[in-house]
Design goal:
This protein is of the alpha/beta class. It has helices at residues 63-87, 141-148, 150-168, 173-178, 185-204, 215-227, 245-258, 260-264, 283-286, 292-313, 355-362, 365-383, 391-410, 421-431, 447-460, and strands at 4-5, 23-24, 56-57, 98-101, 124-127, 132-136, 322-326, 339-342, 347-351, 416-417. A 5-stranded mixed beta sheet has the order 2-5-6-4-3, covered by helices on one side. A hairpin with a 4-residue loop joins strand 8 and strand 9 (347-351). The longest helix is centred in the first third of the chain and has 25 residues, at 63-87.
Length: 468
Amino acid sequence: MRARVGRRLRTAPFRPVAMVATTLVVGLVAACGTTVTGHPTASTTVAVRTVDPVFVRGTDGGTADRLAATVLTDLQGYWRQTYPRVFGRPWQDVAGGVYSVDSGDAAAKPPPCADRAAEVQGNAFYCPAADAIAWDRAALLPVLRERFGDAGVVLVLAHEMGHAVQHRAGLSIEELRDHPDRYPMILVETMADCYAGAVVRWVTDGHAPDLRMGPRDLDAALSTLVTFRDPVGTTASDMASHGDAFDRVGAFQDGYQRGPDLCAGMTVQNRRFTQQEVTEPGARTNGGNLPLDQLLAAMGPDLAGYFGGVVAGLGRRWAPPRVQPTGAEPGCGGDQGPAAFCPAQGAIDVDIAGAVPRLHRQIGDYAVGTLVASRFGLAALAAVGRPVDGEDAGRGAVCLAGAYTGTLLARRNGFALSPGDLDKAVELLLGYDFAARDVHGHPVPTGYQRVAAFRAGFQGGARSCGLG
C-alpha cells in the first residue's frame, strides 16, 4: 500500500525585490497559532538599551527603528570581530546605508533596488548593487514583534546581514548568475540562515553590547524561520527557493552550534536539502494529509517494524506496543499529553477525541505522526533497558522519532513522507513539548532542544540516539 503522510498547503506571497538570491521573502503566515493545550513559549524584549536610529535613512525615529538600529549596530560589531578570523581580511561596514521604509506611504522615497516604497511591503532585503539593507517598518517589523517579539527582528536582520557577508566573501551577482548549479538560491538563503544562527549564539552567550537573548527568544527566532518557509511543493532548484522549515531551522542550528566557519564552507556537495516537489495527484488540494484513522492504522505496523529492527540489532526482545485509540487524554503513568506510552499495558494510547485530532487538523498529519513515533521511541528505550524517565529519556524519544522519520524520507515505495511533513514535525516540536515528555510527563524544556534532538536522529539514525 502506498500511504503518504502530508501537510496542509500553506502559500506565502512572493515579492521579488531586485535579485531574488539576496532577498528574504517574508510570508507572514501563522505557523504555530493553534489552540491545542501544551507548553508553547513566549518571546521577550531583547534590547537592554537602544541605539538612536539617526544613521537609518528614512527613519521616523520610532520604537521599531530604534530596535532595528540597535540590532544592526550589534550585528556589525560581531562581524568586525569575526569576519577577519573566518575570511582573513577586515570587515567593511555596509557602505550603502540602511533604509527604513513606510510601505504604506505613496510619497515615501524607495530604497536601493526598488522603484517604489510599496515594493518593500512586508519585506526586508539586502541589495548587493548598493551594499544596502532595507526593511518595511510599517508592515514587517510591527508584525514580527507582535508574533515573535524582538527576536523576530533580530533573526530577519541577521539573515540580511548574512547576505552582506556573502557579498564581501566574493559571492557576487555574477557568480550567482553564471553558476546556478554551484550556488542555487536555496544554498545562498540557508547559508544566510546559518550566519544568523552564529550571530544569535554570540548574543545568547552574552557578548553583544546591547542585545540579550534567552531560551524563549531562541525558540521565537526558530518560529520566525518556520513562518518564512517556502510554500509546500517548492523544489530545491526553484529560483525563489529559501528552503522548507527543516532546511532553514537546520541551517540556523548548525550556525548556532558550530559557528560561521561551517556556514562559510556550505556547498551543494555537503548540504542535504529536504525540500520536495509535489507529485501525487490531489496533494495540492488536501495537502497530502491522511485521515487520522488511516494514519494511525498505517503508522502502527510501520513503527513496530522499524523499532523492532533497532531493538533486535541490540540483541534484545521487542514486544511491539499496540496503538490504542482512546476517547480521553491517556492517564497511564503521568501526564504525557494526548499520546502516551503505557508500559504496563504494552500500549500507545492516543486521544482521538481531543488534542490529537486538533493537532491533525491545525498543523497536519505528521505532527501526529511525530508524536506517535516519539512514544514508540520510549517503548524502544524500555525494551533495551534504558531509562524512560528524565530529560535524557524525553530527548531520546524525540531523537528516535527523528531517526524513524529519516528512513521515511529515503523511501520510494510504501509508507513515506510527503512534501511539507518535516515542517509539521518542526512546528509540533517548537510549539509543544508532548513529543519530548518522559514516561511521567516531564518535558525537554525548549523547542530548540527538541528540534535539535529530532535532527540528530534524522541525520544520524538510531545510533546517534544511543541505540546501535
